Amino acid sequence: MRILVVEDERKVAHALKEGLEAEHYKVTLAHTGEEGFYLIHSETFDLVLLDVMLPGRSGVEILSTLRKRGLQTPVLLLTARDTVEDRVLGLDSGADDYLVKPFAFPELSARIRALLRRGRGEPAARMKLADLEMDVVARTAARGGRPLELTAREFDLLEYLLRHQGRVVSREMLARDVWKEAARHTPLDNVIDVHIARLRRKVDDPFARKLVHTVRGVGFALREEPA
Ligand code: CA
């Protein structure tokens, strides 16, 4: 597995290279955005670690250009800032994940493994819809930057809805994929409805903009609807 690290602070870049090489990745360093940009176009990488604060063009600018040109490689942004706007901006510009500096190396390593698995068709580690965000690795969810206190089942339910965002999810799908009880004699419909109601109280009640919608006769959809 080949990783490109774009980081202008040489000490940080070399520490990353050493740590990643110890985990048997092949690491190439770029110390400027331009150098990184050139390397991405001339070589093939399985993953790019991209620092946001670079001299010249920022990591976010570089990333949006690369995505516009069709780059599919997973990109993990390293950011020194941690505000909802920055995280959303990073994900909107095409980052697959981000880490806020300073971070612990094992955290970086876990994120990299998750992204590389995803490259092989496994699910995303972080998802968002409007100001709702979920981190599947850490099992945390937040709306408007505020953490949501979810039970394990509510978390699984919200994760499923986020993975299917914009699409209608039926009670049968939830019974099969979230409760994993497809062949039950009594339908789970009431149980599912109770859980959806609880999820709604936590995810939607405190906010003007509702995300959990009931699709009459069919099921539910997690989506942003025009005001
Ligand atoms: Ca930097």
Please tag this protein with its features.
227 residues, alpha/beta, 5-stranded parallel sheet, 4-stranded antiparallel sheet, 8 helices, 22% strand, binds calcium ion
Describe this structure in words.
The longest helix has 15 residues, at about 105-120. This protein is about 40% helix and about 20% strand. It has about 230 residues and is of the alpha/beta class. The radius of gyration is 20 Å and the shape is elongated. The protein has eight helices and twelve strands. Bound molecules: calcium ion (CA). Calcium ion binds next to loops.
In short:
The chain is of the alpha/beta class. It has helices spanning 10-22, 33-42, 59-68, 84-92, 105-119, 152-163, 171-177, 189-203, and strands at 2-6, 26-30, 47-51, 75-79, 97-100, 126-129, 132-135, 140-143, 146-147, 168-170, 212-215, 219-222.
Write the layout of secondary structure elements.
Layout: E1 2-6, H1 10-22, E2 26-30, H2 33-42, E3 47-51, H3 59-68, E4 75-79, H4 84-92, E5 97-100, H5 105-119, E6 126-129, E7 132-135, E8 140-143, E9 146-147, H6 152-163, E10 168-170, H7 171-177, H8 189-203, E11 212-215, E12 219-222
Parallel strand pairs: 1-2, 1-3, 3-4, 4-5
Antiparallel strand pairs: 6-7, 7-8, 8-9, 10-12, 11-12
